[in-house]
Amino acid sequence: MKRIITVQDISCVGKCSLTVALPVISAMGVEACVLPTAVLSTHTAFKGFTFRDLTSDLSAIAEHWKNEKIRFDAIYTGYLGSFEQIDLIHSLIKDFGNGGTRIIVDPCMGDNGSLYSGFTKDFALAMAGLCAKAEVIVPNLTEASYMLGIPYVEKGYTKEYIEDLLKKLAGLGARRVILKGVSFDDKKLGIVSYDSESEKITWYFHEKMPQSFHGTGDIFASVLTGVLVRGLKLDEACRLAADFVVESIKATLSHKDYNWYGVDFETPLASLRGACDEAIQSHGLPRTSCSQ
Ligand code: PXL
């Protein structure tokens, strides 16, 4: 079975980071190992959350894995809480990122033009430095503009503007860039991916939901990581991940008393494995992620 390591916080309540990455990746038939960067009582959109930083534990954990000769098919990073943690990920990539390990960096830092609580412009630049080491990066428009040090443009941009942004992001060093939350009208929301080697740009638009929710970026990146390690191509992987996010939002909105802090990904999770297997089989790839 393919094995990935995901590095991000555990927000005990909040349906984001590790509490979505673990179930989503496991559901796709991929072993999900974790390196928790911090324990929070909730995600940071709640008031008064507790925060225990685990930075000082991370090196010893990674050292143990080195001694045990544990290998990963992918390293997937999400929400990181400090400059020191970014430095530690650079080391993790050096130690575990050899021989075909896919590196997926979700530079999870903000949305709707603002950084999440506790992040700064300098942190965004350090995150851009981590993106240089990735094969695939998954920013939204907010994270993209902070990492590039350019003003955030909320709407009214052109296709050319987005394509230029993709190239600038690839210029940070990642081979592949997936930009989320692109929209040219009120009806559609899109994902656009760029492969800097083939220079191929692929657009995928789905219906725009009436509301956005916390944690959907983490769900997107988790599905993406799972199917990429199982061998699906980037554009197909984006489509599957985006469709799963839309289904999760629809499931959420179908409840009269849905909660504000996260989406109902649990309902569509039951069919994720099937959708994943089907996409994989239709491309002639093995039905399970077991090597043999
Ligand atoms: O979903 C992204 C995320 C992850 N982790 C923490 C967060 C957020 C977004 O607010 O606060 C702790």
TrEMBL record:
Q: Which GO terms describe its cellular component?
A: cytosol
- Using the record's annotation, list all stretches that form the Pyridoxamine kinase/Phosphomethylpyrimidine kinase domain: 24-256
SUPFAM superfamilies with a match to the protein in the record = Ribokinase-like
Cross-referenced Gene3D superfamilies, in alphabetical order?
3.40.1190.20
On the tree of life, the source organism's domain of life is Bacteria
Q: Which residues form a coiled coil?
A: none
Keywords per UniProt: ATP-binding, Kinase, Nucleotide-binding, Transferase
| GO biological process assignments | pyridoxal 5'-phosphate salvage
Q: Which PANTHER family match?
A: PYRIDOXAL KINASE
Task: Give the protein name, as stated in the record.
Answer: pyridoxal kinase
